[in-house]
Amino acid sequence: MPHPTDAYEDDDLDDLPPPQPVHYAEQALLGALLLHPHRLTEIGTLNAEHFDNYAHGNLFAAIRSVPAPDPEQHLTDPAWLNTVLDSARPEAPGLTASYLHTLIQFCPWPKHAATYARMIRVDHARRTLGAHAERLALAATDATLPNPVATTLAQADALARFLENLAGQFAPHPGSLPRTPLPPEPPRDTGEDALNEEQFLLASATAHPAELKEMRWLLPEDFALPLHAALWQCLTALTHRGDPVDPVTVMWEAQHRGLLNANIAPADLMALTSTPVGSPEYWGEKVVERALLARAHAVASRITAYTNDPANTSHQLITGSRRALADLHALRTRWNHASMPAPTTRPARTRTPAPPRAGPPRTTAPPTSRISR
Q1: Which of 2, 57, 197, 312 is most exposed by smallest CB count within 10 Å?
Q2: 114-127 pLDDT per residue, tens
Q3: CA dihedral for 41, 42, 44, 47, sign (positive or negative)
Q4: Per-residue pLDDT tens for 44-66?
């Protein structure tokens, strides 16, 4: 069997990486179809865009568009091959007659055409899933978007629909998670805006602790700074016990939780909870929103790692990606609770729109000094 070659044989390929396994599956399928065109009916649903190699995709499209030849005549007459080549060349001018004959010689078993086609579909699914994950990561990290959460969730929904469609294309198989080592989660945004939002939340929650009972949708893991997360736990613990809440009592609770050390003095902790601005719910929604975008970025990185691991089967890609999206869905549910308007107690017939949640005043207090982190 001759060594397979690329469609552009005259190019200098010495500096290019070796072809991926799907390249050989594409060559084998095309060779089978060029030798036995009638096998086109055996390979199932396959389109030109499923091919990783552009020239291969155009050649496949030409094979499908040109009427099949008479089987007996095809054995001795290359007219059909020439017609296919002429049909493919406008879009893939690098194709040659010799490459078509190389494809025929390379195909191990034409009767395995359906298997080669399935390999191509699986690899296309892997690449498409990777592209969906890339778009999700871009949406979650693009600070220029007018509504990053809506855009990110739309991309997550598109990815979920693709996985649903993908699951229907492959026969059911016992689910198994990928064994791919997961990459470290992308670092959280700890810029000035993010930390100010968390600090304003802690201070406003200290000033209005009664509102914390309606904020069960906010969890410590949503905070970008661990110290802020720990102080939120102090606040919720005091509120749950019904103890008084003010900067001093929060500091005292923090002491019992081991938050005071050489770098964090009692006055520092009290400063973090002493400048209320706006309402706790307003700032809590901001914190959850940032957490949602961070989780989406982490999910995208996780799925990308799965698609970059060739050891994963299509079933493992589907199972692992769905599990990753489930983590995002759980946070999305909490964000929906945070962002929905406050319910009203008016009767249904006289119900009026709820007033907008109080945000920060037009002039806010000057930023307080933050603890080094």
Answers
A1: 2
A2: 999 999 999 999 99
A3: negative
A4: 999 999 999 999 999 999 999 99
Only one residue has tokens 């086109």, namely: 40
The sign of the torsion formed by the CA atoms of 104, 107, 113, 117 equals negative
347 pLDDT tier (thresholds 50, 70, 90): very low
Q: What is the 3-state secondary structure (H, E, C) of the chain?
A: CCCCCCCCCCCCCCCCCCCCHHHHHHHHHHHHHHHCHHHHHHCCCCCHHHCCCHHHHHHHHHHHHCCCCCHHHHCCCCHHHHHHHHHHCCCCCCCCHHHHHHHHHHCCCHHHHHHHHHHHHHHHHHHHHHHHHHHHHHHHHCCCCCCHHHHHHHHHHHHHHHHHHHHHHCCCCCCCCCCCCCCCCCCCCCCHHHHHHHHHHHHHHHHCHHHHHHCCCCCHHHCCCHHHHHHHHHHHHHHHHCCCCCHHHHHHHHHHCCCCECCECHHHHHHHCCCCCCCHHHHHHHHHHHHHHHHHHHHHHHHHHHHCCCCCCHHHHHHHHHHHHHHHHHHHHHHHHHHCCCCCCCCHHHCCCCCCCCCCCCCCCCCCCCCCC
Average pLDDT rounded to a whole number, residues 304-313: 94
Percent of the chain with pLDDT over 90: 77
Given this model, what pLDDT does residue 91 score? 94
Q: Is the pLDDT of residue 361 over 50?
A: no
- Round to whole Å and give the CA distance between 357 and 373: 31
Mean pLDDT of the 359-368 span: 44
By three-state DSSP, how is residue 316 classified?
helix
C-alpha closest to that of 32 among 118, 126, 122, 96 = 118
Q: What is the mean pLDDT of residues 175-187?
A: 88
